[in-house]
Amino acid sequence: MMNDAFFKRIEQKTGVSMENVFSLAQAFQNADFKDDKTVRKLIKQVSTVANKPITKELEDKIVETITAKGKSIDFNTITDMINKK
How far apart are CA 2 and CA 4, in angstroms? Predict the structure, then answer.
């Protein structure tokens, strides 16, 4: 098991709490990527955790891409899409 000091360093470097990371990871594990509402919720969570506000147009584009593929998508995929703007 990893120690708390390890997580504290990550939190300090990223500004993201490990609690947020774990809850987001849990949300991804159980997500239905064909469901529009679920995908929007995940995008908003990633945007918040990554501290990258996104426009409605970008959100719509990401939702369209993800739901069309309907496959399992991870945190990094959505983060990359948000960062491409």
Answer: 7
Half-sphere exposure of 41 (CA within 13 A, CB side): 13
Burial of 10 (0-12, 13-18, 19+ CB in 10 A): middle
Match 């506000």 to its residue by tokens: 53
User: What would the two tokens of residue 38 be?
Assistant: 């679920």
Place of tokens 């990527």: 33
Instruction: Give yes or no for a contact between 83 and 76, defined as CB atoms under 8 angstroms apart.
Output: no
Tens-digit pLDDT profile for residues 45-81 = 888 888 888 999 999 998 988 888 766 566 777 778 7
CA angle 3, 17, 40 (to 5 degrees): 135
Q: What would the pLDDT profile of 4-36 be if each residue is shown by its tens digit? A: 888 788 788 777 788 888 888 888 888 888 899
